Amino acid sequence: MGDKREPPRVAGFRERQMKSIIVNGRYQVKRKLGKGGFGLVYDGDDILSNEEVAIKLVRTRDDPRILEHEASIYRALAGGPGIPQVFWYGQQDDYYVLVQELLGPSLEDLFNFCGRRFSLKTVLLIADQAISRIKYIHDKHYLHHDIKPDNFLMGVGRRGNVLYTIDFGLAQEFSGLASEGRSHGRTLRYASINNHNKRKQSWCDDLESLGYVLLYFIRGSLPWQGRKAAIEEEKDDLIKDMKTNTSPSSLCEGFPEEFATYLGYVRSLGFEDRPRYAYLRHLFNRLFVSRGFKHDNVFDWTEKLHGLVVAS
């Protein structure tokens, strides 16, 4: 397949065109930050408050229901810990637009910044907040369906140590009825075994995906990364078989047993079983204390950034 990127001249024109957009007479589009799960994400300015915001845009000719759905999920979760504040949703010219608070880098960005491995302390700090975020979403009767490093962002300023959950385009309300169903979230690397088997998902599936995220951070990679297949279905089956045939103890070999205990527990849950979130947090907090770590909100990237400032 050829390179589908726009020629620089065309891309530059489009960028200038985007910067001319003022959303709802208040939010000035600025610099492109990247692609979200659906649509493009820009940073922008609130002209009235002079504060920075994030602006997500989806073309009206594309399916607008995804962004509308995501906006409705944010409204349902509003005010919760680690849930970005939404300022406006609506149509502007040829786009559907979601304006929300601007956050910091994703955990994937920070993982790369730190040399693609996190210390045990940082992984445990992440685990505690991430389990809390997932519990809040579940308490509101929603499943995220796409737990991965790119969908966890750190805050900025005084909330720079707060973990946020984003990208609810695939989130669904939990129906409580087990059945066969389409799989949600096609990030195969972190998908639950139920997801691979196209079973309807439950609370345990978000937590299983989080387990793979935590192992990715502490191991540096997962055994099924980089697997090649002629078609997506074959790759799906290959990764599913590796997950199914690899026990938690084998997957977590060489690392604290709490990671295997976590993964074994969430994999053992049935469709209707409500996870014991407090137990999972306690599991990792007990390990945190036993290693003599301090709850000082000093992550690996905090230390590295401080070192760069001192060196300069």
Automatic annotation (TrEMBL):
SMART domains: S_TKc (SM00220). CDD domains: STKc_CK1 (cd14016). Belongs to the protein kinase superfamily. It comes from Purpureocillium lilacinum. It comes from the Eukaryota. This is non-specific serine/threonine protein kinase. GO terms for molecular function: ATP binding; protein serine/threonine kinase activity. Residues 27-285 form the Protein kinase domain. Keywords: ATP-binding, Kinase, Nucleotide-binding, Serine/threonine-protein kinase, Transferase. PROSITE patterns: PROTEIN_KINASE_ATP, PROTEIN_KINASE_DOM, PROTEIN_KINASE_ST. It is an enzyme of class 2 (transferase).
